[in-house]
Request: fold
Amino acid sequence: MDWTVGKMDAFIIKGKSSLSGEVDIHGAKNSALPILAATLLSGGVCVLENCPELSDVENAIEILKSLGCKVRREADRVIVDSESVSTCRVEPELMHKIRSSIVFMGALIGRTGCAHLSFPGGCELGPRPIDIHINSLKRLGVVIDEKHGHFSCTTPNGVNGVTLNLPFPSVGATENIIMAAVTSQGTTKIHNAAREPEIVDLANFLNRCGANIYGAGEGVITIDGVHQLHGCTHRIIPDRIEAATYMAAAAVTGSTITLNNVISDHIEPVYYVFREAGCSIRTYKNKLLIQSPERLKRVKLIRTLVYPGFPTDAQAPVMAMLTVANGTSMFIETIFQNRYKHVDELIKMGANIKTEERVAVVEGVKSLYGAKVAATDLRSGAALVIAGLAAKGETTVTNVYHIDRGYEQLTENLRKLGADIYRTTIGE
Ligand code: EPZ
Reply:
């Protein structure tokens, strides 16, 4: 896929759609990204199965190659040979392509003892501070000089295990600490660690490479430093947010669809919302069947929380589906400062939403109407597609490069389910 083309691409959606059939859920973006960085630590050959084809993933692969790794893709398998890492400096233009490139800091420190990289400031979701990352790595013995967003990290006395108490269970900070500590002297304990399934997947990958990490998925993670890691083969977990997105697409169109390749426990945090909205959800092994009513009921309160609470990444897609519910729903976005950028675009389609600070009140309307709207970030873009499926008439979603970051073959999958949606390139 030529990602550069995405800059002027748009999706054209003709609603109202009705969906049916099955969709295969791809590997999790938020697992693939830290695990790709973590392949640096192995010093050998890692085979990552179920690795999604997404622009963020391809950009992470570019960073690995710029560091001296040999990387190739064979369908959904990405093979990384990190035997010869030639530098610990990542070029700024590569770092600025993906927000989550910050996890290369911990991986480079764990592999080479140094890291020179720069970070984009805020992003579409508001400021994205990295104080928890920096303070934690300094406690591990990393010397960090920061000038105008450029960070030079060195470890003159090595990386030494320490007990940390995170002020907030930051996903990225937990990942950076784990990767910096796996080859340290001594033992590191992380109290108030992030518990997301992607953290568990990263720990499982590193343990398969010979690391000693215990307690991932719980509040305290322990890492006993080891001297050397090795390559391994690892299958990346399915993307729980992609699954929630297709569930919202089915719910908003009164459809019944089956999702394949899911881990039901990982999606558990969103079930209560869909059930309160009137959907029935049944799971069997790695399949999920969602049946939706003609019109959804409102959901009184959705508060985004760290795992295992309702995921912030599902907030926008679920808000889109509730814009046409019967009654008023309320959201409280507790994780990010500015994660309601989809609201103005949904209002252009006829939604009735009021926001104040972290609260959004969504008064269900009978129908949305097609309009020209712009994606502002990954999940907001997905929300606009979901709204377009339910809207009367034609919706054009522009800036779909945001969507390409996290959804593999979204238009193809929705077409297979019966949606009238296609990708096109629009003029300057
Ligand atoms: C990860 O981002 C995900 N990205 C995000 O998914 C997800 O929304 C987020 O976790 C929360 O679940 C990847 O995994 C690549 P955080 P991350 O550090 O690590 C504050 C998507 O749509 N914070 O847990 O950046 C921060 O400002 C993306 O797939 C600090 O204050 O999330 C935010 O308010 C979007 N200081 C909150 O914590 C820090 O040092 C959550 O951040 C770090 C974070």
